[in-house]
Fold this sequence. Notes:
- It is a single chain.
- By secondary structure, the protein is an alpha/beta fold.
- It has 20 helices and 32 strands.
- A seven-stranded mixed β-sheet has the order 8-7-6-3-2-1-24.
- Strand 29 (about 685-690) and strand 30 form a beta hairpin.
- The radius of gyration is 37 Å and the shape is elongated.
- It starts with a helix and ends in a 7-residue tail after the last helix.
- Mean pLDDT is about 80; it is low at about 15-20, about 20-30, about 70-110 and about 545-575.
Amino acid sequence: MGQSARAILHSLLDQLVSHSWPLNHATQRAMTIQIVPLGAGQDVGRSCILVTIGGKNIMLDCGMHMGFNGESSLPTHTRPFFVLTCLSRLETTRDRTNIQGSIIYLYAVDERRFPDFSYISKTGDFTEMLDCVIISHFHLDHCGALPFFTEMCGYEGNIYMTHPTKAICPILLEDYRKITVERKGERNFFTSQNIKDCMKKVIAVNLHQTIMVDDDLEICAYYAGHVLGAAMFYIRVGEESLVYTGDYNMTPDRHLGSAWIDKVRPDVLITESTYATTIRDSKRSRERDFLKKVHDCVAEGGNVIIPVFALGRAQELCILIETYWERMDLKVPIYFSAGLTEKANHFYRLFINWTNEKIKSTFVQRNMFDFKHIKAWDRSFIDSPGPMVVFATPGMLHSGTSLELFKKWAPDPKNMVIMPGYCVAGTVGSKVLAGEKKIQIDAFTQVEVNLQVKNLSFSAHADAKGIMQLIRQCEAKNVVLVHGEKSSMGFLKSRIMTEFGIPCFDPANGTTISIETSHVIPIEMSASLLKQHLIRQSETREDSNEGLTSSSSPGDSSDDSIELPKRKAPSTIKPKDKVLIQGMLVMDDGKPIRLEDAEEALDRIGMAKHKVRFEVRKAFNALALRLAVEEAERKMSSTGESDAMETDVAAESELLDAYGDWDGDAFALDLVYAALQKSIGGHIKLTWEDGAIVVRSVRIRTPTDEDEFERGGLLVGWNYEDEDLATKILSVVALTLCRQPQMS
């Protein structure tokens, strides 16, 4: 190895040693989830998120960046050398003597195309550092770097993805390799054999299937919509959990359903935020606008290019335009990139259970993907006269057939390009949408843009409303935003924190965030305590739902006196999310923690129960109370008020007759008993014991000489267990004793 090359290598190794992924098994803090984006942090593209949860290290997606795609992305003098791998491992990166015996690949590319895997390990020990890799779906910005990471960087561990993703991934990776190597001429890129070897490491999972990666780490896939096979992953280690969404869509389309997940209540939700500030308009109006623009362009003799990715949005728009061409009986040819139509049909037949219900129900009678008007594209058609519509890949105009057609048709103002989805910054598609009139394709090609440019969002990503819906659906405790632009993330972040009151983060690439989680301790509950709670809960429910029952007295059988129940509207009757149960925690060595009834637990361990009791004095004006009752009696006899009032006043009149010498406290106690019997006596038992009203532990009595309270007034006492009941009774007592005669 020459001196200059060795000097460059030493410099690179020093840079690698200077930083490393700090999330290793030895340093992981207890009850903390740590997250580091290697890609898609305040950016769209190159999705790669490192997560440490419960001492387990996981890589979520392994994508490439569309905007930094190949050597041409950087000027020659800024192309860095990038260390790929060491075929014979260095004993230590600081041992310079080992460098001479090692074979190291160096080549000049834009290192921003792939994630910086040196952050995980300085020495390339990726298999030891990572417990698994999870791929959410087959788009290249989520899986494009996978063969590079496994076959050229040396990762040998498990990779998890759904069955459709495993089937489609190698096809798109091979197309990507052909464009990069055979058309652009790049060297030291992954080969076809590398892709095949990479796929052998993949373990395919079914929806809702719980996979135990090891004894502690479990994962489960949920339907994400977006594209065929896309999945959100629920990850759990012990009591800690997170959900990684990848790309998802909360709105069903013409061939896929909407994303859905259980109420898993994860400690962290890592969600895409591509359209963080967008709320889309009506899908029907967008479809109508799309068809009108295509029809108008071809009617004027122009060509329409629609850049799409091979699977997903392409099928959505093909179904739409096929139906329209059939209905309008149009003869203008429609083409699709060669070979992709056949591949799409094959995959949709194979994985029909991933489509929506309409596709499933009609698939036997008619395959929606057998298009009558859409034919395979051939490069010889590019100079054909007359209008045409071409669905061309890829979707961001960064390479392939779509870029070739764009360069050919861009100068003619009769032609049109319709961008149906998001374009990553740096791609030709993003420059077109920005309104640039001269676009530098590469070092030798500049295109003058005169054609019509239309942007109609048929993107299969969740908009701001959909993101908020998912947070609400899974009840996340923390949210981390990735796969979005920085300015949009900031807006959505503040909205999430305001609306849900939970922490939200938007880390940049290479930035570590630590999220502390609460530890849930499972406990058992005694059957007797649960039974007591259910009885009290039913009593409380009856008490709070008095408005749902008839207001007639129990002894009145007259039809005229029965009122119809006043039922609440269904929207106002909601289940309780939390229920308070009072008990005693009992912890025995080697046994589960148990919540028991306090008396039961104390009896078992031989301890006397310590009771906390409260007592208050409710003072009143005895003379005013008596005058108020007498006034009500006179009013009833002179005006002939309602039967209900007659019953109440008659009862009070009997009390007046019963007191010759008249004891104001005893009179008030009887009034309170009558009021309580009317308000709660129908479902809670009231009794008299030693001259006191007793309702469970609540006692209402008159003071005696032994009490510290002054004479006059009523004493209300209760145990702490009946705090809620006592509050209700105190309100009835207060209303009864505060009656005043009206001044004439």
